[in-house]
Write a structure and sequence with these properties.
It is a single chain. The chain contains four helices and ten strands. The protein is α+β, with helices and mostly antiparallel strands and about 170 residues long. The strands form two sheets. Strands 1, 2, 3, 4, 5, 6, 9 and 10 form an eight-stranded antiparallel β-sheet that branches. Strands 7-8 form a two-stranded antiparallel sheet. A hairpin with a 5-residue loop joins β7 and β8. It starts with a strand and ends with a strand. The relative contact order is 0.24.
Length: about 170
Amino acid sequence: MNFTKINPEEISENAIKLIGKDWMLITGGNTESNNCMTASWGGIGFLWNKPVVYIFVRPQRYTNEFLETANYFTLSFFDNSYREMLNFCGKQSGKIYNKAKEGNLSLFETSNGAVAYNEAKLIIECKKIYAEQIKKEAFTDNEPLHHYPQNDFHIMYIGEITECFIK
């Protein structure tokens, strides 16, 4: 593992670009049983006097099963040479494919038992501290509802950033 541990405030890349344009892998589980999914919705910030991330996962996604049962999850960011792998992990199900194997990713376990990837350029490990499903009646603007034609509203997870690793 060729990573340097950094404090969350030392993440120098723009979070909007990192998440919205470059994408990330959300991974739940442990090295024995895990799944990842590509995501481009979420954020990095400060809440409840803690550095946090917030991510959004539809309830039917296989990764959600791992997020529901695990105390920790990771966000992994890659350079552009991994774009095809990120596309694959966003479109295919972990129930059918071992996404890490298919994407030629090598797993390692963090000190808190979460799963991360040696190929990532940035890894953010998080302790799950809040989860709630988005509710239709809570929208104050109806424009975003077009993202939910099947009413399969995302579950929002807030995770306290516990460790960051950068190459």
